[in-house]
Amino acid sequence: MQMQDAALAACVSRSFLRSWRCYPKLMLSVDSLHIKEDASRKDEIKREFISRVDHILQNHSGMGVKAFSLHTYPCSDVHPSYVDHWLQIAITPGIENFELSMFGRHGTKYNFPCSVLSSERRSSIQSFFLAVCSFHSAAQVGCMSSLTNLRLHSVNVTGEELYGFLSNSCALKQFYLSNCEDIIWLKIPCLLKQLDILHVFGCLKLQMIESNAPKLSTFSYAGDAICISLGDALHVRRVDFRHDHSPGALYYARTKLPLIAPKVQTLVLSTRSETVNTPIASCKFLQLKYLEIVLCAPIFPSGYNFYSLVSFLDASPALETFVLRIALPTIRPDSIIEDSGGDSSRPQCLSEQCHDRLKNVMITGFCSAKSMIQLTIHIIEKTKSLMCLTLDTTRGHDRRFAKIDKCLRLSKDALVEAEKARVAIQRYVEGRVPSTVNLRVIEPCSKCI
Predict the structure, then answer these.
(1) Could you read off the pLDDT of 30-44 as tens digits, one per residue?
(2) Contact, 93 vs 118, CB < 8 A?
(3) In whole numbers, what is the pLDDT of the chain averaged over residues?
(4) For the range 28-34, what are the long-range contacts, defined as Cβ-Cβ under 8 Å and sequence gap of 24 or more?
(5) Could you tell me which InterPro entries the record lists for this protein (predicted)?
(6) What confidence category does residue 1 fall into, taking pLDDT thresholds of 50, 70 and 90?
(7) Can you list the positions of beta strands (E) in 230-345?
(8) Residue 302: pLDDT over 70
(9) Which of 15-19, 41-45, 207-211 is predicted least confidently?
(10) For labelling alongside 302, which of 14, 26, 262, 398 has CA 20 to 30 A away?
(11) What is the arithmetic mean of pLDDT over 206-222?
(12) Following DSSP, what letter does each residue of 172-241 receive, concatenated?
């Protein structure tokens, strides 16, 4: 039974009331409490929210809670004394899942009282999530022997404090850290022998990540280019790397990642950089099987060299699938359709290397840029193992909103470019595709507009 259904039933039956008071999962938010949001009565909403949460927790006092979630949005600056009191009631021996997300307007964050995590209470916690709080006593919490999932979002905690907390969480398997701006150095202790997944996003002051977790298999990072060490990285199989505003994002990925994660098998790169000129480098991704590159720049200058991405293909001898996504397609100033100079579709070869295991290639946001056509021709001519080539002139037919049967919208400029891309495919690509290759050309439909 959902929490709101249990609460309603408790209003009409004493038996249900007794059951409700023992209800083990409390998910408390303005939405779950059916408080209607209204910007014109913010103070009234906050008073109603405090009153209802207070009443629910008083009824549950001493009864034991297995899962507790408190999200205060949109009630800003709920006084810490209320929250302290609620946590004292909610965090009881046997609690397994805990979530606290505060919402404030005046810069001062709620200071999570680590005193509520006594040895008896904390020993059963398996999942712990804090958002928009201070956690400066993290290192003093003590052993979190059952903790397997830790998520910290917009939390004031230093790298030293976090290291102390992690050192006491030896069962941890998943760690998500986002928008924590006090952390300069993130160190993952070797004591975390079960840590499998590490995600680090948007920590603006972060300068270094050093992980010594021996079984880490998935690493995700979004931010500026920093110093990253994953130890021996023998088990890291998937890396997601996003540099939103770093001009050297692909350069960093091409030259550094083979050394950071030498046995990576799945690599997803995303950048908003407005230049692409991937270098030729000697280091290789020897076990890489799936490569996805997402280019998000809203405006692509004529110097955007898609053909230089061949460097990634040359560095990946085991590659089976290559996906290139142009997230925001628009009119190309370097369109091959307007180029009148000879057979400009012929690429100047970066290498003569063949891609012997590459079977599936998909390019979404496919455009008429000369370097895009050259990249496509290179793949066709150097990949004898190619089975399927998908050239999608939309923003990604494979990423449609399946539940509502709708495509990602295209701007007017993107629709014009899609038509140019179709002409370029007919003129320069189709005649070069072997009969053994399944060529799929996807054009905008009525749902893209």
Answers:
(1) 988 888 877 668 888
(2) no
(3) 87
(4) 28/53, 28/56, 28/68, 28/69, 28/70, 28/71, 29/69, 29/70, 29/71, 29/72, 29/73, 30/71, 30/73, 30/74, 30/75, 32/3, 32/4, 33/4, 34/4
(5) At1g61320/At1g61330-like, LRR_At1g61320_AtMIF1, LRR_dom_sf
(6) low
(7) 238-243, 266-271, 290-295, 321-326
(8) no
(9) 15-19
(10) 398
(11) 95
(12) --EEEEES-TT-SEEEE-TT-TT--EEEEE--TT--EEEE--TT--EEEEESS--EEE-TT-SS--EEEE
Helix %, strand %, coil % for the chain, to 5?
30, 20, 50
Tell me which H or E stretch contains 97: strand 97-101
102 HSE (CA, 13 A, CB side): 26
Among 366, 373, 365, which Cα is nearest to 343's?
373
**Quick one: which of 398, 341, 331, 342 has its CA closest to 368?**
331
In Å, how far are 158, 221, 251, 353, 356 from 205, measured between CA atoms?
11, 14, 22, 41, 42
Indicate the pLDDT class of residue 332, thresholds 50, 70 and 90.
confident
pTM (two decimals): 0.89
| Cβ–Cβ under 8 Å, residues 148 and 173 | yes
> For the chain, how far is it from start to end, CA to CA, in angstroms?
42
- Phi/psi of residue 199, each to 5°? -120, 130
Which of 113, 109, 55 is closest to 88 using CA atoms? 113
Neighbours of 256 (CB within 10 A): 16
CA 396, chain centre distance (Å): 18
159 — phi, psi (to 5°)?
-60, -35
* The predicted structure's pLDDT at residue 165: 94
What the block records as the tokens of 140 is 């003093």
Closest residue by Cα to residue 98 from 111, 81, 112: 112
